[in-house]
């Protein structure tokens, strides 16, 4: 049994594997650490390349693409380790990145997940969009990070180099306690991809666990390796999955008012896309609502089941304001400008 399994889910990502996997293997050469690539039905020769060039890497092959959620659930169910490190194939690690993460998990059994500082591979002086220095959400379910508010990404000048509790850790590089992952039921496979890590971390938080940011560990993330940020499909998944995670995890007293407010906010966004000539993006939001309502009864039943395992649903890491209003009307574009602890 390994102490830590670094698990990379791959789908036709041989170029990323050639670029980044050798460095992952090199920096993971530690006692009790193994590297596993779970392949989601690739047809680009990824698995053969790994076996020919990095035979110390274990491989798991699936017959088709089960998405981020289904692929990881299947992979992690067959791996026996204390900790899993869920790692995107387009992440470049740095020397010594693993030890601080392992030490943080070892110190407190109540920590379900932790993440490193995540910087942009193509702009290494800046934080990376999907994770930065730790994730949060506002009262309406909009995610943001220390180092990234909506579209504004900050330069890393050490302003967030403190260990702290966060609301969610990025799925690009997230160390998870295996027992907590399985106790929470793993990833929600209906999500397929996008926001599944926020949903998992929210369930961790509701179960009474902690999520930690560890600044002593740093990685560089390319980002957008599966779907680029300007893809209508990605927009659809983000809106649909965001609504689902609200229904599953919000406290009862906030659910109806939040969904009511979100409807008008999202329809406003759809109208802006339409008036800008981006009708495919406008339709992505409409389709997201249709898909959400189609599954709403299922998730209301699931919500009742999850309530039995919830110890706490009020978390200080949920911003009580509106990140959208603060960004566009108050011009607050950095995490420190939010005066988070005072709101």
TrEMBL record:
The keyword Flavoprotein does not apply. The keyword Transferase applies. InterPro entries: Glyco_trans_2-like, Nucleotide-diphossugar_trans. Keywords: Glycosyltransferase, Transferase. GO terms for molecular function: glycosyltransferase activity. Residues 5-180 form the Glycosyltransferase 2-like domain. It holds the Pfam family Glycos_transf_2. Belongs to the glycosyltransferase 2 family. This is Glycosyltransferase 2-like domain-containing protein. It comes from Williamwhitmania taraxaci.
């Amino acid at each position: 049994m390994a102490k830590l399994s670094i698990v990379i889910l791959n789908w036709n990502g041989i170029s990323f594997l050639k670029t980044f996997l050798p460095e992952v293997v090199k920096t993971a050469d530690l006692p009790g650490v193994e590297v596993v690539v779970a392949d989601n039905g690739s047809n680009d020769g990824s698995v053969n390349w790994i076996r020919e060039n990095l035979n110390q890497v274990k491989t798991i092959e699936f017959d088709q693409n089960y998405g981020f959620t289904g692929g990881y659930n299947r992979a992690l169910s067959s791996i026996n380790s204390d900790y899993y490190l869920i790692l995107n194939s387009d992440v470049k690690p740095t020397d010594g990145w693993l030890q601080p993460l392992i030490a943080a998990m070892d110190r407190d059994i109540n920590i379900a997940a932790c993440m490193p500082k995540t910087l942009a591979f193509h702009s290494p002086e800046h934080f990376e969009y999907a994770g930065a220095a730790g994730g949060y959400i506002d009262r309406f379910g909009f995610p943001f990070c220390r180092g990234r508010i909506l579209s504004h990404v900050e330069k890393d000048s050490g302003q967030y180099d403190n260990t702290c509790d966060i609301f969610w850790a990025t799925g690009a590089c997230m160390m998870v306690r295996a027992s907590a992952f399985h106790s929470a039921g793993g990833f929600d496979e209906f999500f397929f991809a996008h926001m599944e890590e926020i949903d998992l971390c929210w369930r961790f938080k509701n179960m009474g666990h902690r999520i930690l940011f560890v600044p002593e560990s740093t990685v560089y993330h390319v980002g957008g390796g599966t779907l680029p940020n300007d893809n209508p499909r990605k927009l659809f998944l983000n809106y649909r999955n965001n609504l689902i995670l609200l229904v599953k995890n919000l406290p009862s007293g906030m659910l109806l008012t939040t969904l009511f407010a979100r409807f008008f906010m999202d329809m406003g966004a759809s109208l802006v896309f339409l008036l800008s000539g981006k009708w495919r993006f406008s339709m992505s939001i409409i389709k997201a609502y249709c898909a959400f309502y189609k599954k709403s009864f299922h998730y209301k039943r699931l919500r009742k089941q999850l309530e039995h395992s919830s110890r706490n649903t009020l978390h200080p890491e949920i911003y009580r304001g509106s990140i959208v209003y603060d960004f566009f009307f108050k011009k607050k574009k950095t995490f420190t400008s939010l005066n988070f602890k005072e709101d």
